[in-house]
Specification:
Strand order of the largest sheet: 2-3-1-4
Shape: elongated
Largest sheet: 4 strands, antiparallel
Number of strands: 4
Radius of gyration: 21 Å
Distance between the termini: 31 Å
Structural class: alpha+beta
Order of helices and strands: HHHHHHHHHEHEEHE
């Protein structure tokens, strides 16, 4: 069981690192050569890197420090650890990857750069991490309200577009807007936090799983007694509705307590009533 958990952690860590490298490639190969800004604090870091003698990677790291400190107290351990790893990897990868324009067309660079940045960000979110910056703010907001994460990120990035327009011209601002939009849509396609899932868990360790979930999830659980038709064994049946974003953590939690439990996972069309806790 520990070996399986270690493999999962290695997989998630790999997703964080690969996703961060993809984002860095999008910055240096598509955005920066055409003065296109990315979303969030990384966009501000690109802006300052273009108009000051300081490197974009170093600026990105400094800007993220306050939010990382907030995240330590407000967000889960895995999330903030993976976020710190992502910020550190991005700091170094922006130094290593050369700033070279893959395309001479700014509009193509904004589209493909946005798709790549969204792909990398979505992979990081799937591993229960983030690339820092406004991502931390967005995740804090989605813990309170049920919104698509990519849409929240797009809303937070209006200030980046305005800065781009005043400093580099409104053509650059429009290219930045296209890149941010493409990245946001890609994040939603991969991350899908706003998608709801219903889990039916049949287990002999219902009380242990219930306590673990109530401790780690802000979600209600309905429990009733069950009996195996073939074996006649008494079991507990737990029903819980979660977001797609929480599935990774829930599966790890269930496997940790009862790897032999039966779990049926279905996508939920709509939720009414008290979704957060019942």
């Amino acid at each position: 069981m520990k070996l399986g958990k270690g493999r999962n952690e290695l997989l998630y860590l790999s997703l964080v690192i690969v996703g961060t490298l993809i984002i860095s490639a999008a910055f240096n190969l598509f955005f920066i050569p055409h003065q296109i800004l990315s979303s969030g604090l990384s966009g501000i870091a690109i802006l300052l890197g273009l108009i000051t003698p300081f490197e974009t990677g170093l600026i990105n790291f400094v800007l993220n420090l306050p939010l990382l400190i907030i995240g330590i107290f407000k967000l889960g351990k895995r999330f903030i650890v993976y976020t710190i790893i992502s910020v550190v990897v991005m700091t170094f990868s922006l130094y290593v990857i050369p700033v070279v324009a893959i395309s001479s067309e700014p509009i193509l660079s904004s589209i493909f750069g946005g798709v790549l940045a969204g792909l990398g960000g979505g992979l990081i979110f799937r591993a229960s991490g983030s690339s820092g910056g406004f991502d931390i703010i967005a995740v804090l907001l989605t813990k309170k309200r049920d919104f698509p994460l990519g849409s929240i990120l797009s809303a937070l990035n209006a200030v980046v577009v305005i800065f781009s327009g005043f400093i580099f011209g409104w053509d650059a601002a429009l290219h930045t807007l296209v890149g941010i939009y493409a990245a946001g849509k890609m994040v939603d396609m991969i991350h899908t936090k706003h998608i709801k899932l219903t889990l039916m868990i049949v287990t002999q360790k219902g009380d242990e799983i219930k306590e673990k979930m109530l401790t780690n999830l802000y979600r209600g659980i309905t429990i009733w007694d069950g009996e195996g038709a073939y074996t006649g064994e008494k079991k507990k049946i737990l029903m819980i509705v979660i977001t797609r974003y929480q599935l990774t953590d829930v599966k790890l939690l269930i496997n940790e307590i009862d790897p032999h439990s039966f779990v049926n996972i279905t996508q939920t069309q709509e939720v009414m009533g008290a979704f957060d806790r019942s």
